[in-house]
Design goal:
111 residues; mainly alpha
Length: 111
């Protein structure tokens, strides 16, 4: 049972890492006029999250393939990799949903 909690903890750690990447980029964009460091545009943040998600997905596919081929990949390693990929995808999907919602709200604004 503690092993299952560990898998969720690892997935949460991956999601937390992606969220902090997204948050730092968004916060940087908000500070762009404050004379601080150059801000990361929102498109750069999205690109980074998508690249990280893709990388985690490729690692998960590689570990599952290694498990099925019997090349020394442990079951728990494959499960952890797939959980990380799943959490990263869910985070990317939520970022996309929020961005689409914000865009739709801007379209509905009346000037």
């Amino acid at each position: 049972m503690s092993h299952a909690m560990g898998v969720h903890g690892v997935g949460a750690a991956a999601a937390s890492e992606l969220a902090s990447t997204a948050r730092s980029g968004i916060d940087g964009a908000a500070r762009s006029g404050a004379g601080g460091t150059p801000a990361t545009p929102f498109s750069g943040v999205l690109r980074s999250v998508i690249e990280q998600t893709s990388d985690l997905d490729a690692r998960a596919a590689q570990s599952v393939t290694g498990l099925l081929n019997g090349s020394g990949v442990e079951v728990h390693d494959a499960l952890i990799a797939t959980q990380k990929a799943n959490m990263a995808f869910e985070l990317a999907l939520q970022l996309r949903n929020k961005a689409v919602g914000a865009y739709q709200q801007m379209l509905n604004m009346q000037f």
